[in-house]
Amino acid sequence: MRTYTREIQAIIDNVEKVIVGKEDVITQSLAALLAGGHVLLEDVPGVGKTMLVRAFSRSIGLTFKRVQFTPDLLPSDLTGVSMYNQKTSQFEYRPGPLMGNIVLADEINRTSPKTQSALLEGMAEANVTVDGEIHTLPNPFFVMATQNPIEHEGTYPLPEAQLDRFLVKVKMGYPDFQQEMKLLNRFERDEPIDTLESVIGRDELLRMKEEVKEVHVSQPVKKYIVQLVQATREHASLYLGASPRSSIALMKVAQAWAYMEGRKFVLPDDVKHLLTPVLSHRLILTADARYHGQSAERVLEQVKKEVAVPIQHDVESL
C-alpha cells in the first residue's frame, strides 16, 4: 500500500467519495496536474470519466469548464470571440470555456481536427489566439479529455502527434463486484458530487507545483529513463518508438510522483510504475504486431523486463 503526503491523501480521499476503487487513475491524473501536463481518459461510456474530472475540480477549488465535443463545434466555441460593443465602439474579447482552470474536453474524438487543434494549441502554449490577439490562459490550466475507444462512426481519431501532447493516458476500467456494490450504496439516495468540498486551494496547488520542480533526479535514474525510451525505438513490434519529449514527460511525472509520496528524489520504481501511462499512447505498432494482437501496453511490459534497473546504492550516491 502506497503512502502519500497529508495534502495528497486528502485530495485522494475526497475524490474517492465519488470514484470508487480507482486510486491508480486518481493518483496518475494528480501527478500529471502537478507536473504541468494534461490527461487523456480513454474508456467506454458509464465508467465515471466525467465524474472524475468534476470531483477533481471540486476537491482543488478551481474553476471548472465542460465542453461537449460534437462534429459542428468550432474553434471559436472553445477559444472565445471578439464582439463589437456599440457603446464603446470597440471590439471586446468574450472568453470561451478554455478560460477555466480545469477543462473537461468530453469525447474529444467527436469533433473536427480543426477544433481539436485549437484545444491542443492551448494545451501546448498556455494561450489562445483570437483575431490575431494572444490571450493567456489561467494558471493553473489543466485539460482532462475523454474519448470512447469503441465507437468509431462519426469520430475523428487524434493523430499521434496530437496524442503526444497529453502527458498521460489512463483507463478507468470496470469496477469489481465489491466496488460496484459500494457504488450502489453510495448513490442510493444522494449524489456525492453535490456535497463535495475543496480540500486545498489554488495557491496551495501552485506552491506544490513549484516544489515538484525541486525533486532531484539522479544521473542513474535519468540514464534509466533514456534507456527505456530508446528501447522502444528498437523494438521489433513498434513502427515508431517514443520521442525525446517522452523522456522529458516521464521524468517530470516521476518527479511529481516522488513528491506525492513525500520524497525529494526519484526512484527507478517511480519510473517503472509510470512508464505505461506516460508512453503507451506515444507508440505506433507495426501492422504485423497489430495483426497478432500485440498492444503498446504489452510492449512496454517487455521493455521493463529487458532494461536493467539501477541498483539502489548507485541511485542514492548521486
TrEMBL record:
This is Putative MoxR-like ATPase. Residues 38-168 form the ATPase AAA-3 domain. It holds the Pfam family AAA_lid_2. It comes from Exiguobacterium oxidotolerans. Keywords: ATP-binding, Nucleotide-binding. GO terms for molecular function: ATP binding; ATP hydrolysis activity. Belongs to the MoxR family. The lineage of its organism: Bacteria, Bacillati, Bacillota, Bacilli, Bacillales. InterPro entries: ATPase_AAA-3, CbbQ/NirQ/NorQ/GpvN, ChlI/MoxR_AAA_lid, P-loop_NTPase. Residues 230-302 form the ChlI/MoxR AAA lid domain.
